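Box 3.1 A note on notation
Throughout this textbook, protein chains are presented in two layers. The first layer is the amino acid sequence; the second is a token string describing backbone geometry. Keep the layers aligned when reading.
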Amino acid sequence: MSVARRTVQDLFPPFAAELEDLCRREGHEDLAEQIGALPIVARCTCGQESCAHFYTAPPPLGSYGPGHTNVVLPVGRGMVVLDIVSGRIVAVEVLDRPEVKRALDGYLSPGP
């Protein structure tokens, strides 16, 4: 029996709404439409206290390679960068957002 993965909307409702709004304001309607349904597949295990980076597709075994781009979102606090591969959000890099980190820690273990 497989376990259903939580989505960005399910785990971080206010953060998901913020991401959607920022994507739309920056002219990325295609990315905004992906936000709510993105599954949380894995998380970064760097151990940095402020890191809440999570993956919405299986993490790569190196670099993402061709088709990879980043979108830095102009958040009011912290830092948020979307990793995009061939038009699909594959990771959300989040720093200095304690409310996102708390929710992510409650869902996936923060360390190795």
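The chain is about 30% helix and 20% strand. Residues 13-25 form the longest helix (13 residues).
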